[in-house]
Amino acid sequence: MYDSRELTRVRVSLLLVAAIGWACLLLQPGTPMHARTVTSLAASWAIMLIAMMSPALIWPVHHLRRRSFKHRRTRAVALFAAGYAAIWVALGGMLVAFELAVMRLAPHSYRPAVVALLVALVWQCSPIKQRCLNRCHAHPELAVFGAAADFQALRFGMTHALWCAGSCWALMLFAMLLPEGHLVAMAAATVLILGERLERPRAARWGVHGLGKTIRIVVAQAKIRVPPAVSPFRAQSQT
Amino acid sequence: MKLDAGVRRKVSASLAPASEAAEPDRVFLHLENVRGTFDASVLSVYINLPEGARPGDHPELLAGSVGLFGLRKSSLEDGAHGGQGLTFVMDITKIVDALHLSNALTVDALPVRIVPHRPIPEQANITVGRVSVYRQGR
Quick check: A130 and B78 CB within 8 A? Predict the structure, then answer.
């Protein structure tokens, strides 16, 4: 069920949250590895997660809000976010631990990032990745009354996070392992992640998954918004 | 199907003074996430059908009939619909208005019965994920 006003509200809110995340990253650049304490490590990871993943949550949050009573919407979204964050924090812990170990073995080296990039490229084309993306599009039926509604909102957040993590972990790891320029890599990964969500689910096969629809949208919008250049020959013939 | 007391009161309140100047709320029934493997079937949806009554004897309670064309493809997890199945929307304002006029809209639950036109094979495994009622204010 589509509601353009509600979708706009959700979109603006989540893009604002992402913008705040990016502002925090730009003001204090550094991967979680650069943090010195466990608290700052967790905070850095949370900011990275908010900046990169918030735009990809527009559709599930819209689905959740449209299928909840008005008076339960805030609670449902909070439970969804809690479930989503719980899974990502657990998986993020593993990624950060891996990153710290790699950085200790090969400090300031681009070699781990290159390996991560190759892994990410293979993963990007794999059927498993497509299956994860397909499941990211899943919008399950949700209960609306009582504890069942709360439980299903929480479960939706957790399962969505699992499929998101399956889809994005390699891109995130690449961005984290870069000694320099990880913010640029994160921005590129965010665009790719968002572009993938615009694609329709399809059969899980080897193939390139990514920006096809995004590029088509950008080209179509450019054709609409940019006025066509007037040919000098045509201009002459008109005078 | 359980109804939210607050929303039910709002619908009743909108139906009470309905006139040319103030149209009542519209009420829609949604069959969400209908999944299965058998396309060649039609489902009829009845509201508040009495227990044991024959559906064909109560055309006034018929919310609508839906064909399940495309059901199998839309139920494939790796298909273009992502396994979400089909969703159908029916305008049930007239039925709800009739229930309101006969003082039958004071209940906390509204019986919904889904009846196939023909017997469905067992292996078709047709399921309806959620049945819900939405109010659209004017």
Answer: yes
Residue B135 lies in a domain: no
Number of structural domains found in chain B: 1
**Residue-number span of the structural domain to which B37 is assigned:** 5-17+26-128
> Would residue B134 count as lying in a domain?
no
pLDDT at A239 over 90: no
Each residue's pLDDT tens digit, A16-55: 999 999 999 888 755 555 556 777 777 888 899 999 999 9
Our CA dihedral for A70, A71, A76, A77, rounded to 10 degrees, sits at: 70
| Global confidence as pTM | 0.87
Could you give the ipTM of this predicted complex?
A: 0.84
In-domain check, residue B93: yes
Q: What's the confidence (pLDDT) of residue A10? A: 95
B131 touches chain A (CB under 8 A): no
Report CB contact under 8 Å: B4, A69: yes
Q: Is A67 near chain B, with CB under 8 Å?
A: yes
> Residue type for B67, please?
G
Please indicate, yes or no, if residue B112 is contained in any of the structural domains.
yes
Q: Is A61 exposed, middle or buried (0-12, 13-18, 19+ CB in 10 A)?
A: buried
